[in-house]
Write a structure and sequence with these properties.
The chain has helices at residues 14-24, 53-74; strands at 3-10, 33-40, 43-50. It is α+β, with helices and mostly antiparallel strands. A three-stranded antiparallel beta sheet has the order 1-3-2.
Length: 76
């Protein structure tokens, strides 16, 4: 069963959202999941499409861990 999910994070400024995008780098898509990341204004948007819920959860958790580090670093 194919699954998808999205995350949106609003930053105080466009520059901070773009810095977060740069800090995330390019995550290799796994066999069972792929992601697209973009900035719209002050919002960092992450969309994930996966073959199953386990792969979706793993990908979401990976991005959440990275964003937690970014948040701690820039002090959002």
């Amino acid at each position: 069963m194919e699954c998808s999910g999205s995350l949106e994070f609003v930053f105080p400024s466009v520059k901070e959202a773009e810095n977060a995008l740069s800090a995330l780098g390019r995550e290799d898509s796994a066999k069972r999941a792929r992601a697209s990341v973009c900035v719209r204004g002050k919002t960092l948007c992450i969309k994930i499409h996966a073959e199953d819920s386990v792969a979706l959860r793993a990908h979401l958790n990976s991005y959440l861990r990275q964003l937690k580090v970014i948040e701690a670093t820039i002090g959002v």
